[in-house]
Design a protein that fits this description.
The structure holds 2 protein chains of 2 kinds. Chain A has a single domain, classed as MetI-like (MetI-like fold, Orthogonal Bundle), CATH 1.10.3720.10. Chain A has 11 helices and no strands. By secondary structure, chain A is an all-alpha fold. Chain B contains 8 helices and 18 strands. In chain B, the strands form 3 sheets. In chain B, strands 12-16-13-14-15-10-11-17-18 form a 9-stranded antiparallel beta sheet. In chain B, strands 5-6-7-3-8-9 form a 6-stranded mixed beta sheet, sandwiched between helices. Classes of the chains: A mainly alpha, B alpha+beta. The interface between A and B is medium-sized, with 20 and 27 residues.
Chain lengths: 238, 321
């Protein structure tokens, strides 16, 4: 119990007197989370709409793949990417190994199934009659997709929240692809792991509290925005 | 103008529409009637370009808009629903508000403009659905059961409003309905679709009063029948009277109170007739005599001929039983 309270004490001190190393880790964490979530949304939303709205051969296989991707072990994704990114490997020329860009690529790959699967499920749940009606009044495919995104906005928000949460908290692929290099590719979660391995439980606790706080604040803001949209619709409807 | 030639449509492996030829002229309203599962909605979807036909072709002068059966509205205000439809249609942004308001006004729904779509009653949603389809001002307008699921009073209100606003010299309109009264109110011509084929097409008086095939006659309400050696006579309840001096006789098998009186079903030796009489009406099991005042006759191997006992030129029906 003494360890716990000592750790908490050090955490409070670090939070009230943040050092440069902490600020650097925070910067990399936010950079990775924001970029990987944005990239996952840019790539995943159209794929989710395609799988949720259109009919084509291989659609079910695509949905199954996206759903299976939700359970991908990040460590395995990390090792595959690391092996591809090493110098001399097929993607070695991209110089992504042990870089923040490499971590962003890894986190994007991990967040993609979340965005695709959640978006496909959300738009699929919207009554299809609305989309047929839109087509019957001249809506192009792009317009129908825009309508679907708006109608399924609560579910699409959930996809974004899930992607961001994954990007903030994930550690396996970050360490394997980024190398967990101090002052360079460390994120909050990988720095926490390093501190635990080094026996610095106080600092590890501090990093953990900051990570949790960050996740809670960001996800809470997004959840409030999501629910505000949903409540506005329900409020008008009642 | 909308023209379909030999239009066939499949749903999966099942052929639903079989070689339909249909033309709707500019300024004309054509109404299609048919039972559930006849292929009406499938035909309309193919005419609207929502389903690829398996055979034949569709040709239209100008753009085609359709209001599908379900009044599907987006989760936004009524006026925003019309505006987004106008944006799909390609109407410039600065014209959308005025056109949406005008369409709502034409259907007496301007007071609904700021309401959220989810708060509308069934009748209001149908009215907005129709206004949305009208707002785009298409050259060809297709409506799939625009009055479905409404109570009688709401349906009548919307029907009479629609009857006046649908007709436009520049527009061809095809309406699918379920009810003969709606066909009378709306159609310049009425078609009957049975099993994916148009079995009859013509002015309402012709198709609904003088059907040319037994299947069409039965569908449009000639549900009573009397067979003789040469063919069959079909009659609606209004064509049958209980009359002690009548030349047909049979036994009452059912007696059901209805809005207009008492519906009486009578079994004859070679047929069954239905009439509506004043209360209390005969009890089941009672022997009664009947007289036909109208109906249609189909002789074996002969085309249909309208038949009424009031016409001196027509032969009197032989007695039944």
């Amino acid at each position: 119990m003494k360890f716990f309270f000592d750790g908490l004490d050090r955490a409070i001190h670090l939070l009230t007197h943040p050092d440069d190393a902490l600020l650097q880790v925070l910067k990399v964490t936010l950079q990775v989370a924001v970029w990987s979530t944005l990239l996952a949304l840019v790539i995943g939303l159209p794929l989710g709409l395609l799988l949720g709205l259109e009919t084509f051969r291989g659609r079910r296989a695509g949905l199954a793949a996206a759903n299976a991707g939700l359970g991908f072990p990040p460590v395995f994704v990390g090792i595959v990417l690391a092996l591809l990114f090493f110098r001399g490997a097929p993607l070695g020329g991209l110089h992504l190994i042990y870089t923040v860009k490499g971590i962003i690529v890894a986190q994007t790959i991990l967040a993609l199934p979340i965005v695709i699967a959640f978006t496909a499920a959300a738009v699929h749940a919207v009554p299809s009659g609305l989309f047929d009606q839109a087509r019957a009044l001249g809506a192009s495919r792009l317009r129908v997709w825009a309508l679907a995104l708006r109608e399924a906005r609560v579910g699409v928000f959930a996809a974004a929240i899930g992607a961001l949460g994954s990007a903030l908290a994930e550690v396996g692929a970050v360490v394997l692809v980024g190398g967990n290099i101090f002052d360079s590719t460390q994120t909050l979660s990988s720095a926490l792991l390093e501190q635990v391995n080094a026996g610095n439980y106080g600092r590890a606790m501090a990093l953990g509290i900051i990570l949790m706080g960050l996740i809670i604040v960001i996800v809470a803001v997004l959840t409030i925005a999501q629910q505000r949209g949903a409540r506005a619709a329900v409020g008008r409807a009642s | 103008m909308l023209r379909a030639r030999g239009l066939s449509v499949k749903r999966g492996d099942r052929q639903v529409v079989h070689g339909v030829d249909l033309e709707v002229r500019r300024g004309e309203v054509v109404v299609l009637l048919g039972p559930n599962g006849a292929g009406k909605s499938t035909l309309l979807a193919a005419l609207a370009g929502l389903i690829a036909p398996s055979g034949g072709d569709v040709e239209a002068d100008g753009r085609v808009a359709a209001a599908l059966q379900a009044p599907a509205l987006a989760r936004r205000s009524v006026v925003a629903n019309l505006e987004i439809a106008l944006s799909w249609w390609g109407v410039p942004r600065d014209q959308r508000r005025a056109r949406a308001a005008a369409a709502l006004a034409r259907l007496g729904a301007e007071h609904l403009a700021e309401r959220h779509a989810a708060t509308l009653s069934g009748g209001e949603a149908r009215r907005v659905h129709l206004a949305r389809a009208l707002s785009v001002d298409a050259a060809v307008l297709l409506l799939d059961e625009p009055f479905a699921g409404l109570d009688a009073a709401t349906r009548a209100d919307l029907l009479y409003d629609a009857a006046s606003v649908l007709r436009d010299p520049g527009r061809a309109v095809l309406v699918i309905v379920h009810d003969r009264a709606e066909a009378w109110a709306l159609g310049d011509r009425v078609g009957v679709l049975l099993d994916g084929r148009i079995e009859a097409l013509g002015p309402p008086g012709e198709v609904l009063e003088r059907p040319t095939t037994r299947r069409v006659a039965e569908f449009v309400g000639f549900t009573g029948w009397v067979e003789d050696g040469a063919g069959v006579r079909l009659a609606r309840p209004v064509d049958v009277e209980l009359d002690q001096g009548g030349d047909l006789h049979g036994r009452v098998i059912r007696r059901i109170p209805v809005e207009d009186g008492i519906r009486v079903e009578v079994e004859l030796e070679h047929g069954r007739l239905v009439t509506v009489t004043t209360p209390p009406g005969p009890d089941p099991g009672t022997n009664v005599r009947l007289r036909l005042t109208g109906g249609v006759r189909f002789d074996r191997g002969q085309p249909a001929a309208a038949w009424t006992t009031s016409s001196a030129s027509e032969p009197s029906p032989p007695p039944s039983g």
